[in-house]
Amino acid sequence: MSAHDRKEDQVRRLLEGPRPVVPVGLAASAAARGDRLLRRRRALRRAGWTLLAAAAVAFAVWASVTRPWEVPPSGVSPPLQGW
User: Fold this and answer.
1) What's residue 19's pLDDT?
2) Fewer CB within a 10 Å sphere, N or C end of the chain?
3) How confident is the model at residue 83, as a pLDDT?
4) pLDDT digit string, tens, across residues 2-26
């Protein structure tokens, strides 16, 4: 008998043997827990996208008010030449 045959026999005995008793409400509680996890994940994802959108709007408002791409006015006037 090869190792493969022994493993196959062990698997067949496990599948055909007595099965453990499953608690009555296990499937319902697992489904409820999965539903809670999905709702929590969906809420976190929605909050993250909302936060990202708010940050983008805040950046756009800040950039339109302060105009960081413009050169600030110089505090020193150039020297007079040619007079």
Assistant:
1) 81
2) C
3) 61
4) 888 899 999 898 888 788 888 999 9
DSSP tag of 46: H
Q: Which DSSP category does 37 fall into? A: H
Q: Any idea what DSSP says for residue 2? A: -
Distance (Å) of CA 16 to CA 1, 13, 83: 21, 5, 109
Supply 48's token pair.
């993250």
Domain boundaries, the chain: 34-66
Q: What is the pLDDT of residue 35?
A: 98
Radius of gyration of the chain (CA): 35
